[in-house]
């Protein structure tokens, strides 16, 4: 499954500040059972808006991590809170179909 959220960087801060916290927290979260990687993308034309995608084996795996996050992860997330706003987009199943260009 995929867990998506949008990050809006507040005035006076940069996406790089958030990315630093993102990497530190993600390195720890990726140690949880079922974690399959993360991505952070900057919106084209808007360097203050990012989209985050976390990949998990299942919703249950992600829920288990979220129910008991590591104290260090909580600390990192709390430290990033003053310079960004998070809006959860949602949780998505793996695609039911994938359309690929011919020859790929």
Notes on the structure:
With 104 residues, the protein is of the alpha+beta class. The protein has a single domain, classed as Alpha-Beta Plaits (2-Layer Sandwich). The chain is 33% helix and 36% strand. It contains 3 helices and 4 strands; from the N terminus they run βαββααβ. It has a 4-stranded antiparallel beta sheet with strand order 2-3-1-4. α1 (15-29) packs antiparallel against α3. The longest helix has 15 residues, at 15-29. It is globular. The mean pLDDT is 95.
Summarize this structure briefly.
The protein is α+β, with helices and mostly antiparallel strands. It has 3 helices and 4 strands.
What level of helicity do the residues show? 25-40%
- Give me the CATH architecture, please: 2-Layer Sandwich
Strand residue percentage: 35-45%
The overall pLDDT, averaged over residues, is 95
Number of helices: 3
Cα-to-Cα separation, first versus last residue: 24 Å
Q: Radius of gyration over alpha carbons? A: 15 Å
- Order of strands, widest sheet: 2-3-1-4
Number of domains: 1
Shape designation: globular
Q: Indicate the CATH class.
A: Alpha Beta
């Amino acid at each position: 499954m995929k867990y998506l959220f949008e990050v809006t960087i507040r005035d006076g801060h940069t996406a790089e500040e958030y990315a630093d916290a993102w990497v530190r927290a993600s390195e720890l979260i990726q140690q949880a059972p079922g974690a399959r990687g993360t991505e952070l993308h900057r919106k084209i034309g808007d360097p203050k808006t990012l989209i985050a995608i976390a990949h998990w084996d299942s919703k249950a795996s992600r829920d288990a991590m979220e129910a008991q996050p590591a104290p260090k992860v909580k600390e990192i997330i709390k430290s990033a809170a003053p310079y960004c706003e998070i809006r959860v987009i949602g949780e998505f199943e793996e695609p039911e179909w994938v359309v690929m260009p011919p020859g790929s």
